[in-house]
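Q: Convert this sequence to structure tokens.
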Amino acid sequence: MKAIAVFPKAKEVQLIDAELPALTSPTHVRLQMLDVGVCGTDREICAFQYGTPPSGSDHLIIGHESLARVVEVGPQVRTRRVGELVVPMVRRPCPHDHCTACRSGRQDFCFTGDFRERGIGGAHGFMTESVVEDERYLNPVPEALREVAILVEPLTIAEKALIQLWHLQERLPWQCPHRPGKDHGHCRRALVLGAGPVGLLGAMALRARDFETIVYAREAAPNEKSAVAEAIGASYVSSTDVPPAEIAARYGAIDVVYEAAGASKVAFDTMQALGANSIFVFTGVPGRKGPVEIDTDLVMRNLVLRNQMILGTVNAGRDAFEAAIRDVAEFGRRWPAALRALISGRHTPEEFRELLLGRPTGIKHVISFAEN
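A:
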């Protein structure tokens, strides 16, 4: 079967003919992979910055954003059925009994770091024609979302952040007063750093909860990303027009910053825009570059005197996947054209080199292993 794999020792990326995986557990499910999203993590693995093959293998099949169809189930599978659309989870629990997170099914909060991640570290990923997975890691998707469900996994980043945000902000009277027809973010202002897929999906999640939302990115408008932001009722602001130090003066104090750019200097400079009782959510991982200069006294002073909070979040649990599936459906009802515009193109596996090793334009590119 076709699969796209990296060979770290040889420093090669290849389209290979992989062996069809077997069902080795009664709760295993065979999946026909339909769509696999290409993201920055995949490109970094293909640049050999990280990525670990499974034990005993010289290669790693990449890909962690996926949509699949169930084609075979083991004799003890109870929750999945043949023909169903599913989105697999990415992280698998560590083996340690003392890791309460993994033993509770919340490997996204693993204490030990000895987890495996499909297509990233220690386990083959989804950029292939067929995958075998345990039923407990599969999330069912309505057939009506076939065209756009590849966006579920990247949306889980924002969903997990929002779930944690509401829990953390319960420590103070932060929710907006009830207003008929409005969600509970209607009196709050959010700033999204970055206009890639994770940033724009985060902006959609915030707008769906009625946050006033500003998408802050490097590229000057108009462009396809600013068009998506404006279509969902968000503002699009280029850093070439408004530097971070001027954001609060232009738009008012920010209640939530959702960082999705991986640019540390811009992120810390933007903290100046945070208001009282606000929260800054980090989701990006910056590359290894030289140190940057920040005013640590100012950051610390504001965190203390304004009751501010910084949150880092990675990966996602089942609650975030379920919320993402619901929200993709909601986005499709509210902004169908904007949601579809996030997917810039679908490609064959043979086109992997430009997508993974080149510099493709657009927002989200997808490799399709089956007819849409």
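The longest strand covers residues 28-38.
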